[in-house]
Amino acid sequence: MAYTLTPKPNMLELNPHDVLTMFWQRPESERDIQITQKALTAAQTEGSEYTLALIKCHLAVLYSAAENQPDAITLLEEALPSLQQHGDEVTEMGTHQQLAELYKNQQDYASALRHHEAFHELYAASTAVSQTTLHQRLHALQTLVSGMYHDLMTPISIIKTTLYLLSKLQSDTEKLSQRQQIMQFAVDNLIGKIRKMALMAKLDGMSADRFNPGSACLDEVLKVAIESLPPELKPIERVQITNKTPGLELTADTYLLSSALTELLDNSLRYSAGSEAVQVKIRSINNKLTINIKDHGTGITTDDLPNLFERNTQKGSKTNLGLPIAHMIIEKHGGCIRIESNPDYGSTFKITLPLNQVAVLQSEAIPA
User: Fold this and answer.
1) 34, 79, 200, 267: which has the highest count of C-beta atoms within 10 A?
2) Which residue, 239, 351, 235, 216, is CA-closest to 290?
3) Confidence label for 133 from pLDDT (cuts 50, 70 and 90)
4) Which of 133, 132, 256, 262 is nearest to 206 (CA)?
């Protein structure tokens, strides 16, 4: 049976997954072996250990197809430690399977059995992990759907009830206006929840290669975040920003990062006592940006802190979506978020983000 392989001389420039794809292919000519041998020689001085291991696996397959089984065995055995260290269980399983077959052909049945058993151990472990992960995700989804059912039904019920009352209050202008305001609030609430669900689904499906942040001005990010807050929270009066750094820039998606800050500020404003202000403190040091958002609310209990950013966490009868969304966005930006809370002094969200570029506008940094 003839197999084809398109020669790729610049193998070191390939993504490791491209090399892995080549690993399972077969040679059409001696030239493929020569090309891969040259790549192996170059990788020994220029490539990473993992890339070197993948090239060895590929060359071993070429040797095996060319009936050079002893050299194929040597290369595969040399590649195994790097594959194990890198955690590439898929290629490791394939290598064990290939070695088992090669040793069987060489009538070394003890070695063949050893690699056969290693293959099945890895396969069984990966299957068990996959099943466990699937059950965990299904459970989380069930919890989320259950919570969101009540969250969505509450404003819908308010709208339905209000529509009924409106039909009975056509002659009472004042009460009619009040009911219209209630219904408008319920509609806005419903739209907000649906938007959060859509954003969370977008973040779940956003792989690393689809996340393409650009240059963003922190001032603009904060401005958008504050303007996106509900007017009833009085964000313009209550959000106090200290340690401003005019013109500070970072690599970020302005919409997503401002959405994360909006969720955190919304939480802090809602749980602050009365009309207490929320302080936002900004610092940049050692190419790191820190944003601390401090409220003066009732604080968070020690039992609730560990699960605060889990999407299935509930506050009373409400499902918490805002904080998990903020957590996901900040992590996608290569940052981290943690919270410190004291029942007597409120809570502080502490955000750390990488600063790839710090640019202070000359017009603001240098006096005229």
Assistant:
1) 79
2) 351
3) low
4) 256
